[in-house]
Amino acid sequence: MSGIFTSSIGKKLLMSLAGIFLIVFLLVHMGINLLVIIFDDPIVYNRAAHFMSTNILIKIFEIVLFGGILLHVIYALILQAQNWIARPKRYNKINFANTSFFSKFMIHTALIILVFLVIHMADFYFKAKFGHGAEILVDGVMYHDFASEIVDKFKMLSFVIFYIAAFIFLGFHLIHGFQSAFKTLGLDHKKYNPAIQLAAIIYTVAVVAGYSIIPLMIYFL
Ligand code: HEM
Asked: What is the pLDDT of residue 86?
């Protein structure tokens, strides 16, 4: 059982499971963020964010989320290091580099996403956690005013450009990561590969477009 944490295939398996968890998180997070542009009233988004930060099940999910990100990053680094060490011997234990263009840049796009995440969390999540975020009182309940913070940020062109650039790199990471994760979990078969590839493209386009539309609508409308 401990082999799952130490063997190469075990590490790749855990990394894929964590990756699939993050793939689902991205859809949930996007759905909630779209509320900012769908509803004119900021309280709709603030209520949803409030629910997400107070509900006990979601709090557990959040711990799993941070664990998932950490696990995904740590195992990716270990596997990448093993790959680099193995390379001079022309012996590639874990075949990260299949033929796709995006697969060659997974570690680079991952680093860009990590930098984005640190800045993003500092802007919204940690600011609110440490009591520096905007707040609003509605019907006797105090809410973090994330909706106004998002609108304020995306009224600045520099933020719009930074976020959309990050979403594009996220897309490069996801288009390969999505397929790689499902293949690692056993779906690597001639019969299923075209369907997985199509699903990866649809998912990636939906995520990049869905996230990008938020800063674009706020900036231009
Ligand atoms: C337009 C795009 C985005 C907006 C407006 C946005 C907004 C926010 C806000 C307001 C928070 C703090 C409130 C909360 O916890 O729900 C947050 C948290 C977070 N965001 Fe984003 N986000 C965006 C894109 C992303 C992307 C692309 C990622 C991942 C690559 C991401 C990852 C996270 C994480 C990990 C957290 C903390 C965990 C959580 O509590 O949900 N966000 N985001």
From this structure: 81
pLDDT band of 88, cuts 50, 70, 90 = low
Q: Give the structural domain span for 194.
A: 3-220
CA distance 169 to 109: 6
Tell how far the Cα of 160 is from the centroid of ligand 1, in angstroms: 15
How much is the pTM?
Answer: 0.89
The structural domain count of the chain equals: 1
Contact 96, 80 (CB under 8 A): yes
Residue 93 has pLDDT above 60, yes or no: no
Q: What is the CATH number of the domain that holds 81?
A: 1.20.1300.10
In short, whether 170's Cβ falls inside 6 Å of ligand 1 is yes
